[in-house]
Amino acid sequence: MSLLRTATTKLFVLDTNVLMHDPSSLFRFEEHDVYLPMVTLEELDNHKKGMTEVARNARQASRNLEQIVGASLDKLENGSPLGINGNTFVTGRLFLQTAAVSVELPMLAGGKADNQILSVVADLQKQCPQRQVILVSKDINIRIKARAIGAPAEDYFNDQVLEDTDLLYTGIRELPEDFWEKHSKDIESWQEAGRMYYRVTGPICKSLLINEFVYYEYDKPFHAIVRNVKGNIAVLEVVKDYMQPKHSVWGITARNREQNFALNLLMDPEVDFVTLLGQAGTGKTLLTLASALTQTLDKKIYSEIIMTRVTVPVGEDIGFLPGTEEEKMAPWMGALEDNLDVLNKSDDDAGEWGRAATQDLIRTRIKIKSLNFMRGRTFLHKFLIIDEAQNLTPKQMKTLITRAGPGTKVVCLGNIAQIDTPYLTEGSSGLTYVVDRFKGWEHNGHVTLIRGERSRLADFAAEAL
Q1: How far apart are the C-alpha atoms of 316 and 35, rounded to whole Å?
Q2: N or C: which terminus of the chain carries fewer CB neighbours within 10 A?
Q3: One domain for residues 278 and 403
Q4: Do both 185 and 291 map to the same domain?
Q5: Residues 135 and 222 in one domain
């Protein structure tokens, strides 16, 4: 049992940033072996102090390493089995660097940690010519350097929900022109509680997901939501048309098909979790606030609206801010203020006094909270809006969504093309993660908004710039 174990399995050399990014990465390589240079352990040690996410991950990685090495009865040179705690899927072994490296790389400055890791990779290639030795790192520069010295290098992909975000579930599906010909054989239709339902049978039904929207835009336009799927039978419910002024929500009507679908989800008390994706100006915040106010103040389904967002600045940080939690959050809540202005304008009949009274009433019902104080809370009968959700990690997203108690609705808004956090990509964002994991659950809905409705200037800027 040595590094020359088998030629079929690969040997992955891990950079420190992989362990600090995901402490469980040690158990993600299945039958392949993992090798840790001494520099990696040294760097882990240097990053373990503090209360940051990175420090927490470094400490967890160290605990995992101790468990693996402590459970092994062999000498360290023979490697320690990674399959601990009954984890039978992982058959690879963990090797720690136990001897000095014999290969020197004169073109790289020797003292730097990255270059020492590259020396280890070069040394392993020399020791095990018949095995594939691959460097795994989240750092682009070390991957480029590795390729320059002829060593294969890869990013750590396990945390990515999707390789290509174009494949992300949109929540909307266009029905083909021959849909009715192929699916109208055993069609049934009925009305229940003022809603129209169709039960259709055919090949497309298998691929439909619950609460997915379908539309047919040919001779007779048809917009519906999938309510039930069993084999090749699906129940479709015709959606409510919020484009008509008589169905307006707090004075707001849907301006396009996707906005209409979004309002159907936001106004449905059976849907507990809604995700809305879309670029700037597609109306995500406005539609959500309008439906939140209607259901909180008019229908009294929820007791109050809670709005939160990640405080990541686009430019340089502006330092500490004075005041209470709400006052500190105020600069981040410009989007809320702008949308409340629009929603107040829709109340023209009430006059100045009426508008001012409405504004005061709205203020008392909207609470602005910081993400930092969410741990351990439970929200009962609240309408929770998480804005700019693309900047959250999957872990933070889980922390927030699990705050929901009975009768609470959670709405996540975001645009995965505008991630401001340096450590997240479109594929590993918490928003991408929840859209992918929740699809098909009967109390979840998702819509990707496409058309900008802000102004002709904003639309042209979004396309041309």
Answers
A1: 39
A2: C
A3: yes
A4: no
A5: no
Residue 399 CB partners (closer than 8 Å, separation 6+): 374, 375
Residue 160 within any structural domain of the chain: no
pLDDT in tens, 43-93: 888 888 877 777 888 888 888 888 888 766 667 777 777 777 666 677 788
Residue 407 lies in a domain: yes
Please spell the DSSP secondary structure of 99-157, one letter per residue.
S------TTS-TTSHHHHHHHHHHHHHHH-TTS-EEEE-S-HHHHHHHHHTT--EE---
pLDDT tens, residue by residue, 277-290: 988 778 888 888 88
pLDDT for 1: 42
- Same domain (yes/no): 319, 398: yes
Other CB atoms closer than 10 Å to residue 215's CB: what's the count? 17
Residue 244 lies in a domain: no
Residues of the chain with pLDDT > 70, as a percent, come to 83
| Helices marked H in 5-112 | 16-21, 38-46, 53-71
Whether residue 143 sits in one domain with residue 67: yes
How many Å apart are CA 403 and CA 15, to the nearest integer? 35
Is the confidence at residue 315, as pLDDT, over 60? no
pTM above 0.70, yes or no: yes
Strand (E) or helix (H) holding 230: strand 222-230
Residue 202 sits in the same domain as residue 269: no
| Rounded CA Rg of the chain | 27
Most confident of 124-133, 163-172, 434-443: 434-443
State pLDDT tens for residues 227-244. Answer: 888 888 888 889 988 888
The CA-atom distances, in angstroms, between 83 and each of 72, 88, 91, 285, 399 are 10, 6, 6, 47, 29
Query: What are the angstrom distances between the C-alpha of 94 and each of 3, 23, 84, 248?
Result: 10, 14, 11, 61
Instruction: Tell me whether strands 366-370 and 304-309 are parallel, antiparallel or unpaired.
Output: parallel
Map residue 204 onto helix, strand or coil: helix
User: Measuring CA to CA, how many Å separate 430 from each of 276, 288, 332?
Assistant: 13, 20, 20
For residue 367, which of 401, 327, 314, 409 has the smallest C-alpha distance?
A: 327
Structure tokens belonging to residue 341: 């202005």
Q: What distance in Å separates the CA atoms of residue 318 and residue 423, rounded to the nearest whole number?
A: 21
**Residue closest to 87 by CA, chosen among 104, 113, 103, 67:** 67
Which amino acid, residue 90?
V
Which residues are CB-neighbours of 440 under 8 A, at least 6 positions away?
209, 210, 211
* Domain total in the chain: 3
